[in-house]
């Protein structure tokens, strides 16, 4: 009973006499201080950014850089090629491509010929999002890939006409088939 009374008394004091926290200005004169983080829609900032873009060296623009050439894998055995493709289809960097390519590899890689695996390897050298958009038919594939049987198989796989739930396959599942 006395515990309830002590708690009620503390609560009553908190209502009657709230604590006062001392505060002070962070800047000596807040009205004359310049904003250290200007908003992006500031016209002066937008003009400065446009000038900087116009003055940059075209060789420094990342969007225009060429893709690095793929590694030369001449003399690679079919077993090593297949194992590397299994790994590369699982480790694309985006979950969307990991799921699409790894399940495609699980279903098709064991029966692919060496020539088909080499073509698949070249497709995996393309930028990930480009291949993703080609397979989902959000963007047209370039003429180099548009009429290939590999991309047609991949597009069919992506459509998932059987409505199966797709999960990252175990490595043993890929090697068993």
Automatic annotation (TrEMBL):
Its main location: mitochondrion. It holds the Pfam family Sdh5. It is found in: Mitochondrion matrix. One of its GO terms (biological process) is mitochondrial respiratory chain complex II assembly. One of its GO terms (cellular component) is mitochondrial matrix. InterPro entries: SDH, SDH_sf, SDHAF2. It comes from the Eukaryota. Gene3D superfamilies: Flavinator of succinate dehydrogenase. Keywords: Chaperone, Mitochondrion. Plays an essential role in the assembly of succinate dehydrogenase (SDH), an enzyme complex (also referred to as respiratory complex II) that is a component of both the tricarboxylic acid (TCA) cycle and the mitochondrial electron transport chain, and which couples the oxidation of succinate to fumarate with the reduction of ubiquinone (coenzyme Q) to ubiquinol. Required for flavinylation (covalent attachment of FAD) of the flavoprotein subunit of the SDH catalytic dimer. Belongs to the SDHAF2 family. Interacts with the flavoprotein subunit within the SDH catalytic dimer. This is Succinate dehydrogenase assembly factor 2, mitochondrial. The gene is EMI5.
């Amino acid at each position: 009973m006395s515990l309830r009374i002590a708690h009620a008394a503390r609560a009553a004091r908190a209502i009657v006499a709230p604590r006062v926290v001392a505060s002070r200005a962070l800047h000596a004169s807040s009205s004359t201080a310049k904003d250290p983080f200007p908003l992006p829609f500031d016209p002066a900032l937008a003009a400065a950014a446009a000038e900087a873009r116009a003055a940059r060296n075209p060789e420094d623009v990342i969007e225009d850089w060429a893709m690095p050439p793929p590694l030369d894998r001449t003399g690679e055995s079919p077993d090593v090629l297949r194992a590397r493709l299994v790994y590369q289809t699982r480790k694309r960097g985006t979950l969307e491509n990991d799921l699409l390519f790894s399940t495609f590899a699980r279903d098709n890689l064991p029966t692919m010929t060496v020539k088909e695996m080499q073509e698949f390897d070249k497709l995996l050298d393309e930028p990930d999002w480009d291949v993703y958009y080609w397979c989902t038919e959000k963007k047209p594939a370039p003429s180099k890939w548009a009429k290939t049987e590999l991309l047609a198989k991949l597009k069919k796989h992506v459509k998932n006409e059987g409505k199966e739930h797709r999960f990252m396959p175990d490595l043993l599942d890929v090697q068993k088939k």
